[in-house]
Amino acid sequence: MGDQVLADTPFPPSVEDFYLPSIAFGSWVTKFSLLVWLAVAFVIIFFLVAYRNPKLVPTKGQWLAESAYGFIRDGVAKEVIGSDGLRFAPYLTSLFLFIFMANIFGVIPLAQISPMAHIAYPIVLALSTYVLYLYLGIKKHGLGGYLKDRLFPPGAPWPLYVLLTPIEFTQYFITQPLTLAVRLFANMFAGHLILLVFTLGGFVLLGSGNIALAAAGFISFGMAIVMTLFEAIVAILQAYVFVVLTASYIQVSLSDEH
Amino acid sequence: MADDQTPKRSDESGASVGWAAVGYLLAGIGVWGFLGALVDRWLDLPQGIGTVTGMVLGAAGAIYLIVKRLGA
Predict the structure, then answer these.
(1) Which residues of A167-192 are buried (b: 16+ CB within 10 A; e: fewer)?
(2) Which of A148, A168, A170, B25 is the most exposed, having the fewest neighbouring CB atoms within 10 Å of its CB?
(3) What interface predicted TM-score (ipTM) does this complex get?
(4) Is this prediction's pTM over 0.90?
């Protein structure tokens, strides 16, 4: 029996585990696309239902929606961008809830993997932030003014620009969007991998036929439970970090440096 | 301490400033290290001396920018 479990357990986990099989239409519909669709549907339905019939004394759903919106509006939009940030609060809130939903799938039974563990999804989100802050900066300062603000930090002696301008260029136009995508992706990828290691590793140890190793298998399962809770925290934290950084990039684009 | 800061700075979230500083260091060391490596290859310098010079210069530039852009 032990050998049977060992043979059936795909261990060690690898990058292959992140390429999920197609469900329909060639490779266009996978578990990832279904989960993303679910997350979008959840955010839309949640706010529709919560605000469909608003009461002065809020119902439970309305209270939840108002808390989520109020948290992002006050804690992120107003706090990071300033009074100008109010108009971004709806976008930031839906972004936050969408990423949170997509992330939390990583620890929900049956889903058990986050779409954000596949780099394509964070790339799309980072691209929308990238386009947004470039657009806002160019709209506010004009292309020349925006580039001058960003690439030539005021107050530096001009020979230093030889050194500083390439750094500023790399920072604003390459590193910022790149790290935004990679941070979210890497956190969800690593989280899934950790859970795979402890869960599958537990089965392998249990099936090893050695009493001491089997005992270690139970510790491995215990670790899987602990890491699942940890992943739930990471899910909300990374959604928050993504939204705070998006807001911060918007703030920089809108700010008057002079 | 709190009242000598401009409102914009004190409102800014600490996390985003931290990430921006890390980004500057990455960008500075990365881009100038890369340019230094190109100089290495161009002039056939020994021991990657161009790369290390570029990285040190880039780090210095990044720290300068952090003080200029993010400092109070």
Answers:
(1) bbbbbbbebbbbbbbbbbbbbbbebb
(2) A148
(3) 0.73
(4) no
